[in-house]
Amino acid sequence: QQVMAVTGKTFSLSEDVFKLQHLLDTNLLSYYEELEELTSAAVKEEQVEVKLAAIQEDWADQVLTFANYKHRGNVILQGGATAEIVEKLEDSQMALGSMATNRYSAPFRDEVQGWIIK
Asked: Which of 11, 30, 27, 31 has its CA nearest to residue 19?
C-alpha cells in the first residue's frame, strides 16, 4: 500500500495476479530515497515486533519459588530465583520504555502501553 502511495501507481497484490513486471513498470529507481526510507522503517518496526514477542514469551510462564520463614511455612520468595526475576523485569521495563518513545513502534503503541501498565 505504501509503495503504491509513494509511486502514485496502483497494482493488485493478489499472488495470482501480481508480477515483477508490475513493479518494474512503476519506475522504482526514481523513488529510491522514499522507498529506502520506507523499507528501513519496516525493518525497524519488525525489530520492535520481535522484541515485544520476546517479552511476551519471557513473561508468559514465570514460576515464583517460595521459601520457609521461621515456623510459618512457605510464605516468602526465595532470594536467588527472585533476584533473577527482578533483573528480567528491569530489562523488560527498559526495553518497553525505549519502545514507548520510538517512532517505529507506533503500530504497536497500545500493546507497548499495555505491557508497561502490567
From this structure: 11
Residue listed under C-alpha cell 513498470: 25
Flag residues of the chain having pLDDT under 50: none
The Cα-based distances of 91 to 11, 16, 51, 79, 95 in angstroms read 44, 45, 12, 18, 6
Look-up of cell digits 502511495: 5
Are the C-beta atoms of residues 64 and 85 closer than 8 Å to each other? yes
Summarised one tens digit per residue, pLDDT across range 58-87 is 888 888 888 888 888 777 887 788 888 899
β-bridge mates for residue 77, sequence order: 66
Closest CA to 96 of 58, 61, 63: 58
Cα–Cα distance, 87 to 80 (Å, whole number): 11
Dist CA 103 CA 61 (whole Å): 30
Work out the end-to-end distance of the chain between its first and last CA atoms, rounded to an integer number of angstroms.
34
Q: 99 with 91: CB under 8 angstroms?
A: no
